[in-house]
Amino acid sequence: MIEPEMAFFDIHDNMDLAEAFCKYLIQYVIDHNYADLEALDQRLQEEEKNLPKEKRRPMGLIEQLRFVTDNPFERITYTEAVHLLEQSKPYKKGQFEFPVEWGRDLQAEHERYLVEKEFQKPVIVRNYPKEIKAFYMRLNEDQKTVAAMDVLFPGIGEVIGGSQREERYDQLLSRMHEAHVPEEDLWWYLELRKFGGAPHSGFGLGFERMVQFITGMSNIRDVIAFPRTPGSADF
User: Fold this and answer.
1) What are the φ/ψ torsions at residue 5 (nearest 5 degrees)?
2) What is the predicted pLDDT for the residue at 130?
3) In terms of Cα–Cα distance, which of 199, 103, 107, 203 is closest to 151?
4) Would residue 125 count as lying in a domain?
5) Containing structural domain, residue 18
C-alpha cells in the first residue's frame, strides 16, 4: 500500500490529494512509457476478441487511462450513491448480484455501474455509515456517518480507500466502545489525542491494483512483484 497521511487535511483536502495523485501516476506512465502501453493495449484486444461482448471491457487500455486523467472525478455521498443505484435499470431488473440497501457496503458491481454507466468518469464516494467503517474515522455531525472516502475506477471499482481521522479524544473513545475495541490494546493511540491533536486525513492506494489497472492485466497475480502465497515465506 501507498499511504500518505496529511496534517490539517479534512475529507475534502483528502479527496483532492487522492485525485491529483492518481492522475499524476497515470499521466507519468502515458508520458514516459507510451510504447509499452500500446503493446499492452494490443495484447488486451487479442485476449478479449474471442470473449462474448458482455464480458469484454467497456474501453481499450489507453482509452481507459485517459478516462481517468482527462475527467474531473465525480464526488457524491454514500447516501446519494445508494439512491442512484436503487433508481438504476440493473437494480429494477434484478441484475445486481448483491443487494443494494443503506447500511450495506457497496460491491464492485455497484461501484462499476456508478463509474461506467451513471457518470462515465471516476467517482469518489464519501460519508459512509459508521457501522461499516473503522472506529478511527471521524464521526460526522449526523452521528450516523463517518468522513470516509473511496475512489472508484472503471473496470476494477475501488482503487483507494481513506478517511479523515477522528482527532477528538472523547469521540474516539466513544467509537472504540461502540466497536468493542479494548482500550488497553490501543492505549498508545488514545494518548496521541489525549492532549489535543491536529485534524488529519489519509488514504491507502493499492499499489498492485494500480499497476493492474495501468497495464490492463486481468489477474492481479500477474503484477505482484513478491507473491504472498501460503507457505512461500521462510520467516
Assistant:
1) -135, 120
2) 96
3) 203
4) yes
5) 5-220
